[in-house]
């Protein structure tokens, strides 16, 4: 059995700390007034853009003058609840028949 370890990942790039993974955990912890947790931390050179999860803001947003902070997501002045359409997944199962000529002994 494989055990997945779910950690909050923080990176530092161009002097900015960026949450690379653990958004839901960080949001949940912050909403419970928990502000200090252990993280996995890594620094990136200024000339090397970090690889971040799909769906994160563009580098111009999180590397800009006023990057969003975690408390912003809980502040009704700068955040708004939205409804997102649930993604529909379609699975195609392809079965292929194979005919074998096997001599019977």
Walkthrough of the structure:
The chain has 105 residues and is α+β, with helices and mostly antiparallel strands. The chain has one domain. It contains 2 helices and 3 strands. It has helices at residues 23-31, 59-62; strands at residues 9-13, 16-21, 40-44. It has a 3-stranded mixed beta sheet with strand order 2-1-3, with no helix packed on it.
Quick overview of this protein structure:
By secondary structure, the chain is an alpha+beta fold. The chain has helices at residues 23-31, 59-62; strands at residues 9-13, 16-21, 40-44. The protein has one domain (1-105).
Rg, rounded, reads 22 Å
Question: What is the helical fraction, as a range of percent?
Answer: 10-25%
* Low-confidence sequence ranges: none
Determine the mean pLDDT: 78
Number of contiguous helices: 2
Largest sheet: 3 strands, mixed
Q: What is the total domain count?
A: 1
Ends apart, CA distance between termini: 43 Å
Descriptive terms for the model:
105 residues; alpha+beta; 3 strands; 15% strand; elongated
């Amino acid at each position: 059995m494989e055990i997945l370890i779910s950690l909050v990942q923080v990176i530092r790039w161009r002097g900015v700390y960026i949450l690379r993974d653990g958004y839901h955990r960080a949001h949940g912890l912050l909403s419970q007034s928990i502000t200090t947790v252990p993280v996995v931390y890594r620094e990136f050179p200024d000339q090397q853009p970090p690889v971040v999860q799909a769906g994160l803001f563009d580098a111009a947003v999180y590397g800009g003058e006023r990057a969003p902070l975690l408390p912003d997501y809980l502040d009704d002045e700068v955040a708004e609840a939205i409804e997102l359409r649930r993604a529909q997944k379609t699975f195609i199962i392809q079965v292929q028949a194979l005919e074998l000529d096997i001599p019977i002994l």
